[in-house]
């Protein structure tokens, strides 16, 4: 409050965002208090109407960015606890069953420690330990070496390395790290050539596409795997290795296509680049611990089901090992991107509210999705996700769409067989979210690349649209193919 007051008094106050916040709150209150008959959903309860209002609030706040995206997620959890749970104020609960099914307050708070959150947290911890020990620099040096010094080959190397790192490390952190490695390259290139643009754009493209490769590569993947494997929902048991078997080959093909496009759109004037990656790996027992833990964790993510350990449980391995050995300190934990964790938790809470109150099922029954063509549902859902993700956080987009689509898919059942089943729709949403890379605001890696001043918005838009459309078409095609073959 004091900080806000200070901003107002000092003139450092965003009037537009304040206005959007005020409008959002007004719309939310109106939806909260509308006559139930207005919604046209048979059997709608008061609690379910409140969840609709909270959903509207989340949509408006995420789209307008009136407050930070993670703050929107915190607000969702707060409002659910205080107004829709069995721990809310008594006058909001009503008499026994009067207002409908209330949410379990413990379940809402448990969204922050959901097994899928732990999976994501394990990926963050691995990334921090790799950076602290210098293991990431050593890996980058080793991986770029085979590509030699021909300019086009160096570009391919950066695309592939960025893509591989983004499978296991936050794509934002990967983009920042790889652009640091490119600094000496930019100095070596002639300023009048287009090679700098190609190399700069390779980082966000590699990070965005590479994130599709594993369930922990990007938050939309985390949402998709959550709803696919939810024991109380679809309970499909999609494993880490199943995801990688399909998505990694797709990622490699897309990165190769992106490389071809970049070389044609932004040709190098200088034919060779002498690349030096600065930084050294620490040579002590802690580095050995990090390297071994890194390898064991990835092996268990890939083969853990063979010995009865799932991916979520495996994620606790690096967290426990690095804590017990002192590889990471309490201060290092501050480097975890907690805002993303809150974003994901808020999305899970929103999904829980829609399902736990029966709202999603009630709404789906009022719309004859079973009569719709599955291809129409798939294409429309992916296009909506792609369009939204270009302008708002792809995490927020996934948080809004996936809970609804999970229920739609469950209701449609066997009729989705023509497009490869439920997996095609939910993973298709994750692919569509990652394909959105047209603008500097589309993803953090795009923003990081644009901040260098080496890329114009038109350059990013041109490449982003082409690569994005190709990613959508190939991605959905591959999902339909493997889904119909029963592999995914």
UniProtKB/TrEMBL annotation:
Its record classes its membrane topology as:
Multi-pass membrane protein
Subcellular locations according to the entry: Membrane
User: Which terms does the record give in the GO molecular function aspect?
Assistant: phosphate transmembrane transporter activity
Entry superkingdom: Bacteria
Signal sequence bounds = none
* Assigned keywords, A-Z: Membrane, Transmembrane, Transmembrane helix
Instruction: Enumerate the InterPro entries for this protein.
Output: SLC13A/DASS (IPR001898)
Membrane-spanning residues:
18-39, 51-84, 117-135, 155-182, 240-262, 283-303, 309-328, 340-360, 372-389, 419-442, 463-487
A single GO CC term for this protein reads: plasma membrane
Protein name (database record): SLC13 family permease
């Amino acid at each position: 409050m004091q900080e806000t007051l200070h901003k107002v008094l000092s003139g450092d106050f965003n009037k537009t965002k304040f206005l959007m916040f005020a409008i959002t709150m007004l719309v939310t209150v109106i939806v909260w208090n509308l006559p139930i008959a207005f919604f046209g959903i048979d059997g709608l309860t008061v609690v379910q109407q409140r969840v609709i209002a909270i959903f509207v609030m989340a949509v408006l706040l995420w789209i307008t960015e009136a407050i930070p995206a993670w703050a929107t997620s915190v607000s969702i959890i707060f409002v659910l606890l205080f107004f829709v749970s069995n721990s809310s104020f008594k006058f909001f609960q009503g008499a026994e069953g009067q207002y409908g099914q209330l949410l379990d307050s413990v379940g809402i708070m448990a969204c922050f420690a959901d097994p899928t959150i732990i999976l994501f947290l394990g990926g963050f911890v691995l990334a921090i330990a790799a950076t602290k020990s210098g293991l990431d620099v050593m890996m980058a040096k080793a991986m770029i070496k085979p590509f030699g010094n021909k300019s086009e080959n160096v570009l391919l190397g950066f695309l592939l390395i960025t893509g591989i790192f983004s499978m296991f490390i936050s794509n934002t952190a990967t983009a920042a790290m790889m652009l640091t490695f490119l600094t000496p390259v930019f100095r070596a290139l002639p300023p009048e050539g287009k090679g700098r643009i190609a190399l700069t754009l390779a980082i966000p493209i590699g990070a965005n596409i590479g994130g599709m490769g594993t369930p922990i590569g990007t938050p939309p993947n985390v949402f998709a795997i959550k709803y696919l494997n939810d024991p109380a929902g679809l309970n499909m048991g999609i494993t880490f290795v199943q995801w990688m078997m399909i998505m990694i080959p797709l990622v490699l093909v897309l990165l190769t296509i992106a490389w071809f496009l970049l070389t044609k759109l932004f040709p190098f004037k200088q034919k060779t680049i002498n690349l030096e990656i600065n930084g050294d790996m620490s040579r002590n027992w802690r580095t050995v611990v990090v390297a071994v833990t890194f390898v064991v964790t990835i092996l268990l993510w890939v083969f853990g089901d063979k010995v009865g350990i799932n991916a979520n449980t495996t994620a606790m391995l690096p967290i426990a090992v690095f804590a017990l050995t002192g590889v990471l300190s309490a201060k290092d934990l501050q480097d975890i991107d907690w805002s993303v964790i809150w974003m994901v938790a808020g999305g899970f809470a929103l999904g829980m509210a829609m399902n736990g109150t029966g709202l999603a099922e009630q709404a789906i029954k009022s719309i004859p999705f079973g009569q719709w063509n599955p291809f129409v549902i798939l294409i429309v859902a992916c296009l909506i996700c792609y369009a939204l993700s270009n302008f708002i956080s792809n995490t927020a987009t996934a948080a809004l769409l996936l809970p609804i689509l999970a229920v739609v898919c469950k209701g449609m059942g066997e009729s989705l067989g023509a497009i490869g089943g439920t997996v095609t729709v939910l993973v298709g949403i994750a692919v569509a979210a990652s394909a959105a890379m047209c603008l500097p605001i589309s993803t953090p890696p795009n923003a990081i690349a644009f901040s260098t001043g080496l890329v114009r918005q038109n350059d990013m838009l041109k490449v982003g649209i082409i690569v994005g459309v190709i990613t959508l078409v190939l991605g959905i095609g591959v999902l339909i193919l493997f889904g119909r073959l029963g592999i995914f």
